[in-house]
């Protein structure tokens, strides 16, 4: 999952992967959308994501990152 909540697929294998009829060569990426058909070695998969859960995850991640930047950390070193 990307930072904006979108999804992509990278082919890490030696053989091609087919996404909605487009070949994804080894080492290349393609964006995934709703109901994408992914074919790997003659096996078909349908990609679906739960957008409600994705949005909640992004909100929670943003809150955690905001809290980290607001925390003040004490240093054991003295300032001269």
Automatic annotation (TrEMBL):
GO biological process, one term: positive regulation of transcription by RNA polymerase II
GO MF term (any one): G-quadruplex RNA binding
InterPro entries linked to this entry: MCRS1 (IPR037912)
Source domain of life: Eukaryota
GO cellular component: Ino80 complex; MLL1 complex; NSL complex
The protein's name: Forkhead-associated domain-containing protein, putative isoform
Species for this entry: Thalictrum thalictroides
